[in-house]
Amino acid sequence: MRTLCSSTLIGEFFIIGFAGLVAMKDPDLSVSTVWLVSGIAMVLCVLLCGMVTRPGGVVLGWALQIALIVSGVFVPTMYFMGAVFAALWWASVHFGRKVDEAKARFAAVSSPADAA
User: Fold this and answer.
1) Exposure check for the chain: N or C terminus, fewer CB within 10 A?
2) How far apart, in whole angstroms, are the C-alpha atoms of residue 12 and residue 79?
3) Looking at the predicted structure, is the pLDDT value of residue 58 above 60?
4) pTM recorded for the entire structure
5) Rg of the chain's alpha carbons, rounded to an integer?
6) How many CB atoms lie within 10 A of CB 63?
7) Which of 61, 59, 62, 83 is nearest to 71 (CA)?
8) What pLDDT is attached to residue 2?
């Protein structure tokens, strides 16, 4: 699960950076505010890569997905990109858990303790 979720989060890191560049063009938003919010979200993406398998990591990831969708208020394209990344997040968590379960079953079947 960690690999799939981390890949999604790193993709989001770049999307948030690009959305910050687009939001910077909005005359109603100050550049410092845009980069403060974008920077915090980008750092959160990187930190979540290491927290995915810990308790609450997936929930924080969902919070980030919701924030990404809500950012569409300022950059309308983010409604679409947020929805795409929310779907990717769901797939990463869902299929990542299935892969982890399959690895655990395989390890249990092929453990050297059973061969003795």
Assistant:
1) C
2) 13
3) yes
4) 0.85
5) 18
6) 13
7) 83
8) 87
Distance CA 103, CA 69 (A): 33
Residue 102 token pair: 């399959």
How many residues does the structure list for the chain? 116
Q: How far apart are alpha carbons 85 and 62 in whole angstroms?
A: 10
Q: How far apart are CA 114 and CA 97, in angstroms?
A: 25
Asked if residue 116 has pLDDT above 60, the reply is no
In sequence order, the 6+-apart residues with CB closer than 8 A to the CB of 104 are none
pLDDT tens for 70-83 read: 999 999 999 999 99
Counting beta carbons within 10 angstroms of the beta carbon of residue 67, is it exposed (0 to 12), middle (13 to 18) or buried (19 or more)? middle
Q: Which two tokens stand for residue 39?
A: 């920077």
